[in-house]
Write a structure and sequence with these properties.
disordered N terminus, alpha/beta, Rossmann fold, 6 helices
């Protein structure tokens, strides 16, 4: 009985976040290069999720949490896309490099022959317990144009989710992932719709 209640509460939390995201208009990203037109993207390559969390002890599978939502959002916004899951491609992606990506570094990122790359970075994901539980996440997103060797779109999102009472206390283990999923949804709200040139 308790497991049914827990699942029901989690569904309510997740659904309410999803509905709020759908109802809201597209919001501006942190940075978008003047003259960038999403319709110019003929194929968007989504890279594995970069994990820059300090504490990685939770065992949270970020690719499993983020990439299905990324694919769904890109489909909804009409982007032709493919997802790459080879984590060797992102081994050299560090916080220092992302602070100011050099043109040479951008040109070598991702699979050879690709032009447009989407990189999602989880910088923090945690949960805490009180009389209930909360989850927090911090994410960054980067859209690279390898031909121009630059970042054409960048966004940053913070999310906080929670559930009070004894049920919320029992849900603590789910909260970090729920917060990451909420941040992912917000991230894609800031990505423009893909339209033909």
């Amino acid at each position: 009985m308790m497991s049914i209640v827990l699942k029901t509460c989690l569904v309510i939390v997740v659904c309410s976040m999803a509905l709020s995201g759908c109802a809201a208009a597209v919001k501006p990203p942190t940075v978008m290069v003047t003259g960038f037109h999403a319709g110019a993207i003929d194929q968007l390559v989504v890279l594995p999720v970069v994990d820059h969390r300090i504490d990685k002890s939770s065992g949270l599978d970020l690719d499993e949490a983020v990439l299905p939502l990324a694919e769904r959002s890109l489909t909804d916004k009409h982007y032709p896309h493919t997802v790459v899951r080879d984590r060797a491609i992102i081994e050299q992606v560090t916080p220092v490099v992302l602070e100011s990506p050099s043109r040479d570094w951008v040109s070598t990122l991702g699979p050879s022959g690709s032009r447009w790359l989407l990189l999602l970075v989880v910088e923090d994901a945690s949960s805490s317990l009180s009389f209930g539980s909360t989850g927090n996440a911090e994410m960054s997103g980067y859209l690279f144009d390898k031909e121009q060797r630059t970042v054409v779109w960048r966004n940053k999102e913070l999310s906080r989710v929670g559930q009070g009472g004894l049920i919320g206390m029992a849900m603590k283990g789910m909260m970090a992932r729920t917060a990451v999923e909420a941040a992912t949804r917000e991230m894609f709200r800031a990505l423009p719709f893909h339209h033909e040139k």
